[in-house]
From TrEMBL:
This is Tetratricopeptide repeat-containing protein. The lineage of its organism: Bacteria, Pseudomonadati, Bacteroidota, Bacteroidia, Bacteroidales. It comes from Paludibacter jiangxiensis. InterPro entries: ARM_TT21_C, TPR-like_helical_dom_sf, TPR_rpt. Pfam families: ANAPC3, ARM_TT21_C, TPR_8. Keywords: TPR repeat. The keyword RNA-binding does not apply. TPR repeats lie at residues 204-237, 272-305, 306-339, 340-373, 374-407, 408-441.
Length: 462
């Protein structure tokens, strides 16, 4: 964003001013700097995230130029950057200027941070209404204050006001689209990004953001088209390749997804996550050893990545090494004990090692974290069938049915539980429903309830 507090341009002249200032500090000498030079120094340190250094430069400035309202304004700006809105406001209210945009913008932001929303609105309204030139940029600045504080509807008022003056301003359109996204108005956001693209078909930022909106709406085909444009416009845009890879993954095009991820290797900020993404692709391709190789690389980069440990556990489970899987999954849960899916995988590993009590506890932990898991309720019910806790099994199957009545074999599981509880009048109709959907249902039923063979045969004869 190019707001009033983000417009710092560090050109050669500015570099020389900062170099001269730092040399004076290092030599413990007091050099002379005019107000404009001090503004450059203060803004430089603010943009570097060093408000304390900015404050030191202001202290020098106030010694050289006592009473400078420009430097007092900068002091308020530093307080705002440091999170002290109250001190910032106290300074700004002592400054007597007429319609100085930066002072008024800072005052409005300080009021907003102090939860004086109506007062902030009055400051901004007056500033916008009295503007005689560069209205779009002023509106953009006001909008940035609102956006940075989470007031998206308020921001849109000023963005639309700016667009009324210049309907093709890309910055205004970009920020308006962003606000509509935050307000869950995806289609309007899409319309605004398309307005930017209509004016400039090579706008990387617009294509990328458009792709993200489509992606978040699970419209992966449209998202892919947008990310295709990003990577065609700039083959070195690795963010575009990464998102294209993510999109292809959701389209079940795992080999194409891997190709995109490979282009990003050693180019992304979090390479361990990239290796996890690649591992997940290999998992989907049933190439579990290749997946494990990726997860191991991720852990070499960052051994605190729970997803990589979980991936190792899943692959070990698929490769019929459940004991090894349990070790990996425990490491994942040490890092993230709130991941309900990891608890499910751990339960499955325990089932495969015949540690039924441990499996039961893991399933229960998963369901405590996320109750809406019909398949997990079925799995827990199956455990209870195996250990002859038939009422508990029925309770689990009924919960699964209530969550998703179309679950495969749900009628069969219910029939088994009811039969084991001697509720034959409920069991038989459910078994008949199960047989309509799966002719093999009777075989499964008789494996678990062999004593029911006579009833099944009698039913077949009818």
């Amino acid at each position: 964003m190019k707001g009033y507090n983000q417009e710092f341009i560090f050109d050669e002249e500015s570099q020389e001013v900062v170099r001269r200032y730092e040399q004076a500090v290092q030599n413990r000498t007091v050099g002379y700097f005019d107000v404009e030079e001090l503004e450059v120094i203060v803004d430089y340190y603010l943009n570097c995230g060093k408000p304390k250094e900015s404050s030191k430069a202001i202290d020098l400035g106030m010694t050289l130029h006592p009473g400078s309202t420009v430097l007092q304004t900068k002091r308020a700006k530093v307080y705002l950057a440091s999170g002290d809105a109250r001190k910032a406001l106290q300074i700004l209210e002592r400054i007597h200027t007429t319609n100085d945009a930066e002072t008024e913008l800072l005052k409005g932001e300080a009021l907003l941070r102090l939860n004086h929303e109506s007062e902030a609105h009055l400051v901004f309204s007056r500033l916008a209404d009295n503007a005689h030139s560069d209205v779009p940029n002023l509106c953009l600045d006001i909008a940035h204050v609102y956006i940075s504080n989470g007031f998206y509807k308020r921001a849109l008022i000023y963005l639309e006001k700016g667009l009324a003056e210049d309907s093709a301003d890309a910055d205004l359109l970009q920020d308006a689209a962003f606000c509509y996204e935050q307000l869950d108005q995806a289609q309007t956001a899409i319309d605004y990004y398309n307005r930017i693209i209509d004016a400039d078909a090579y706008s990387l930022e617009a294509w990328f953001n458009l792709g993200l909106v489509y992606f978040n709406q699970a419209n992966y085909s449209q998202a892919l088209e947008a990310f295709d444009y990003v990577t065609v416009i700039d083959e070195e845009d690795f963010g575009g390749w990464l998102q294209k890879g993510n999109t292809l993954f959701h389209l079940n095009r795992f080999e194409d997804s891997l190709e995109c991820y490979r282009r990003c290797e050693e180019k992304v900020a979090y390479p361990d996550l990239l290796q996890v993404f690649m591992g997940e692709c290999y998992e989907k391709l049933d190439e579990y050893n290749n997946a494990k190789t990726c997860y191991k690389r991720a852990l070499e980069i960052n051994d605190k990545n729970p997803d990589a440990w979980t991936g190792m556990g899943i692959c070990s489970l698929e490769l019929e090494a459940p004991e090894e899987s349990i070790e990996y999954l425990h490491k994942a849960l040490e890092l993230d004990s709130e991941n309900f899916e990891t608890w499910v995988y751990l339960a499955e590993a325990y089932v495969n090692t015949n540690k039924i009590k441990e499996a039961e506890r893991a399933y229960k932990k998963s369901l405590k974290l996320e109750q809406h898991q019909p398949d997990t309720w079925i799995a827990l019910g199956n455990i209870y069938i195996d250990i002859a806790l038939y009422q508990s099994a029925l309770d689990c199957y009924l919960e699964a049915y209530n969550q998703d009545s179309s679950l495969e074999n749900i009628n069969l599981f219910l029939a088994i539980a009811y039969y084991k509880l001697s509720e034959y009048k409920k069991a038989i109709p459910l078994l008949e429903k199960a047989l309509e959907l799966n002719p093999e249902a009777s075989t499964i039923f008789l494996d678990i309830c062999p004593e029911a063979r006579e009833i099944i045969n009698k039913d077949k004869n009818h």
